[in-house]
Amino acid sequence: MAVKKVVTFKAGHFRFSDIYDAAALNEAVVEARVLTTTVAELPVLPSLAAKLDEEVIRRSIFSTAALEGNPLSEEEVGRVLEAADATEFKERAKIETANLKKAYRISRGLDYSGGKIQLSEGLVKQIHQTLTAGIESKVNRPGRYREGMVKVGDKDHGGIYTPPKILDDIKKLMSEFIAWINGDDLLGLPPPIRAALAHYHLGLIHPFGDGNGRTARLVEAIILQSQGLRWVPEMMSNYYYQKPDDYYWAFSLARKNRQHDVTPFVEFVLRAFVGSLYEIRDKVTFFIRLFAVRDYLAFIRQERNITQRQYDLLLALLENMVSFNLDDLFKRSPFDILYRQVSLRTAQRDLAKLTRMGLLTKDPQGAYSLNLGVLDGM
Known about the structure:
Layout: E1 3-7, E2 13-17, H1 22-40, H2 46-66, H3 74-82, H4 92-108, H5 121-132, E3 152-154, E4 159-161, H6 167-181, H7 184-187, H8 191-205, H9 212-225, H10 232-242, H11 244-255, H12 263-302, H13 308-320, H14 328-331, H15 335-339, H16 344-356, E5 360-362, E6 368-370
Antiparallel strand pairs: 1-2, 3-4, 5-6
């Protein structure tokens, strides 16, 4: 571990640091490695993969945009992403969202076959150009480094930071950054740590007039995607959005450390990585369980252990995952279609039978739910 000191023209000494407390982070690194293998080995059907792709991209784009003040709700983001023609958008918030979709497409289309992707200034500029294209700004030029002073942060998150101010310094630092992040020492680090260091130092240089946060988070995702992971790199933006104070404080604490120890930021990114791995693992295993329960329901219907109506009720619950009571069978969609011509006594018998078979559970308030644990112990 070392500090690489670069002398700039106007900003004094700038330091690239990979100093962090390896002992303190070892448990998280090991946990990340084990979870990465676990998630990579989970079987994912194409239909599930498509569903996860849509959900993860929507939530990630919403989160990374909202972190920088985009006012669109997640539902509004979804509608923008579904639009066939992004050129129709005039509002800044919608243009930003459509641009993020294009940038994510670029990141997913890169060649990750080598396992340790080499960054380039061209790629960083391409990501930024895509993110900020079509957005009017007095301080930002898409895909081009800034030429004036900017200030980052606020007093509530560790104070205001002024990154290098002049274009020549930014050009020099970006060239040094690319050489450093692609060096053998950095390539040999666990990918989450290398990704965190790239994210952090791009934030320090702050090379563009606007969109630096989105660019840094996408560069981080690109490094993580080189591991062959799906969904997790994009999902980390959700973690940052949920914990914005921790995110900004981690950056400030690392920046202000006199020994250039970047542990606070690396640790925060590792927590985001591990948390995202757990979330994807739980999502995939949940859907695997759904598929298994669906197959079991088809089997017991084929064996005539349940009626067609009971089978249709269970399938409706499998699709909607809601709780219901006896009265809902006659008044609530989609159950009312199944029970509109069924007597109250027959409906009661259905519920009693399905509960007895372990297919439904009943809580103390009388609400029924599909029992996804019906196969446990079989």
